[in-house]
Amino acid sequence: xxxxxxxxxxxDPQKNxxxxxxxxxxxxxxxATPKDYERIGFKSGLEVHQQLKTKxxxxxxxxAGIYHDDNDYHAEIIRxxxxxxxxxxxYDGTALMEFKTRKEIVYRINNKTTCTxxxxxxxxFPINREALEIALEISLLCKLNIVGEVHITRKQYLxxxxxxxxxxxxxxxxxxxxxxxxxxxxxxxxxxxxDACREISDVGHRRIYKTDxxxxxLIETVTHPQCLTPDELREAADYIRFLNRSTGKVRTGIxxxxxxxxxxxxxxxxxxxxxxxxNKWLPMLSHNECFRQWALLHIRKLLLERVPLPExxxxxxxxxxxxxxxxxxAVANRFADMGYKVVAIALPAFHSxxxxxxxxxxxxxxxxxxxxxxxxxxxxxxxxxNEDLEIxxxxxxxxxxxxxxxxxxxDAIVLIWGPANDIPTAIETIEERCRMAFEGVPxxxxxPLADGTTIFERVLPGADRMYPDTDSAPIPLDEAYIxxxxxxxxxxxxxxxxxxxxxxxxxxxxxFLLRRNLVPVIEEIVGLGFPSRYVGSLLGHKLKxxxxxxxxxxxxxxxxxxxxxxxxxxxxxHHSIAKLMLxxxxxxxxxxxxxxxxxxxxxxxxxxxxxxxxxYLIEKFKEIKIAKKDKPENAINWVMGQLHKQALGNxxxxxxxxxxxxxxx
Length: 665
What we know:
The chain is α+β, with helices and mostly antiparallel strands and about 675 residues long.
């Protein structure tokens, strides 16, 4: 229990942040062990969204995969969300939250990619059969039990990302599994659905979307919450991504695949981190989210020790004029000068809670600030307190405000500000979130940040958000049709891992090869008679570096690499030349291969011609050598280095090395 003190007495928020971090046993991601995750009861699962490579959208005939810039549009549509009673006479929590925001939702429409279906002015067309077939193939790869009949339903989308307020979706398979290195992870289901809009901006009460991606075919693969460490979570996400890409029928690039991860700790609740665009972010995000929940449970314990009857907890607030009250806080005064209302709040029993650690660099104050931004639509900075980690209230400001609020030593003193119309919602939001602190971990959706932390996005939708779509007829799936699809499935990803190991391809090359679906390319090149280890390393290491260094030419296709090796074979070149040719082919895929050889200054030489200067080079090395010990391998390596580039394509470098060694011996 926190030590009592007068509100004006100096309190060090940074020290409290560090002490509470230690109190919950937080460890960094780099230091964490499986025992740490077992201690806090880490549990996580995935919802992997993947766009399908089709010509048209899912329920209309607009083209798919055509994107336009933020300002490339022909019209705007403005909508406002409002809650309605369900058949059970209840309001959805997410709907109520969105209604509080008083958001104006703006959709920017380009005629090339959008039609009247997207705004619910036209009934849906029959489902895109190309998309359905791809989704069924992936369902079979996931070892799911395929449904006998596809029933299209509507799933409520209340954040405005879909103009109709609902998404058409259909479950295709249930209860499958994927094989990780040390365990199997169960799959709950795979669904086919239409993609949502892309957000352009969300400032104040105005949120802007563009609709080019809206309605594109998408699959959602949902796992059971069986990942017990962040590393298992990453492995499962990679496996599903590799599996999807192995078909060659899904889109790639930024935004084409996104993951939502559901995380909880022992005693916590399911919290969804939505829209993780990079698998490599998943371990840090899930690690920090689990410890955030662990910290919130510690806060709950502290509060219940101080307030045995939470239902009687009441906060106090007053509107103030910072100047007349003598408040010196520069940020509060700046917003008061802008005409914002400023409100002082006393939070009984919350002394030392606001600066309690929640995430690296964040404390409980951030839980309040995030909700003020999302629900009250007050942009940050929107709050400060006597426990602010960056610019806290001074001792004199705290003393003045404590006097105005009649605060006790255990109260936390808070200042918030915002436009007059937003202040009532802001006060309600602060009180609501503080009351939630007595219960532990709120069910919510959070947005990922690149530093591995998250921010509040919205209340988690209710369970009853799906209902039948009466505009779409059921689609029967004949068993013979499913068996026909099963016959043309690619190799299982688990077998691909085994295959790469048998080829002796370095393990660190596997993720890139599977992510780019390059194993079939390797198989084709190996079929021409080239060594698998060399080809796998060339693509998994060299090509990876090339892609990271040069922009990809629009005409480049991985099949061009197969053509490169076919040229090497037909011209009786040694395959080592591919290392020099590949960067040129990647940048200029339409260049003739003979021209590529000219561009790298390749000249044909026989083994005798290459070995001709060896004696001279040996004598030269004796003149310039600087090594203290006269080792034969030093001379061999130096001479090899002088001849290596000339040898590529002409002679096996290993053979050249052997010949030089014989000469020196």
